[in-house]
Amino acid sequence: xxxxxxxxxxxxxxxxxxxxxxxxxxxxxxxxxxxxxxxxxxxxxxxxxxxxxxxxxxxxxxxxxxxxxxxxxxxxxxxxxxxxxxxxxxxxxxxxxxxxxxxxxxxxxxxxxxxxxxxxxxxxxxxxxxxxxxxxxxxxxxxxxxxxxxxxxxxxxxxxxxxxxxxxxxxxxxxxxxxxxxxxxxxxxxxxxxxxxxxxxxxxxxxxxxxxxxxxxxxxxxxxxxxxxxxxxxxxxxxxxxxxxxxxxxxxxxxxxxxxxxxxxxxxxxxxxxxxxxxxxxxxxxxxxxxxxxx
Length: 295
Hints:
Number of strands: 2
CATH architecture of the largest domain: Up-down Bundle
Number of domains: 3
Order of helices and strands: HHHHHHHHHEEHHHH
Largest sheet: 2 strands, antiparallel
Strand order of the largest sheet: 1-2
Helix content: 55-70%
Oligomer: single chain
Shape: elongated
Strand content: under 5%
Distance between the termini: 58 Å
């Protein structure tokens, strides 16, 4: 459904569109002269004249996207951004009309705006997904008109996938997303309006009992580990803390230099300390069946 502006905004948009359509068309040589003056001398008057003459092109391109449920004024403004980008990058020596070059930039800018704002869910990131988003309605309408029925079947979706070079699954996903609309979780349900959609969502997180159990288990493991570390020598504690309990793992070679021993000796001390820790924790725990995972 197309977005409907308030009367004041509609009037402002119409005034802008009429103003754009009244701008004079540029002759090719004058257009190229303006482009050279902007490129070589940064003549802002030349840039302004060239851009104003093609705001009608922005309006034309923006009107093709008016059925995506977004304000026409915003579409035009995004198109103007694309027009300015085109003016900045245009090379008059390529003997190409500015309108031909600018159309791509205007359309790309408007398409990016539509993709960002059509839904709160990111609609498409790859070029194939963007092509699917902007062509699915057209192809669906074409197929439905040919078959004289509404909706797509599996063969229709396969046909669209082949034409746009995407997967059938992508067509199905995009079809589902475009058939619905965003809805607030605070929207009310039923006639009395006492409940909202948010209250109907299930919570996949842990329940209070599971949270309490996790906290208690974590506290118990901390006690076991601290007791086990207390049974190690200072050098063994240093190795374990720097190799297993810090954010950044220190290499065996670096620890060897710090402790004044070889890398192999550090490895031996680490292995011995780990065995001591394991043995200490086993002595502290009554149920040892699920305490350690075998490699």
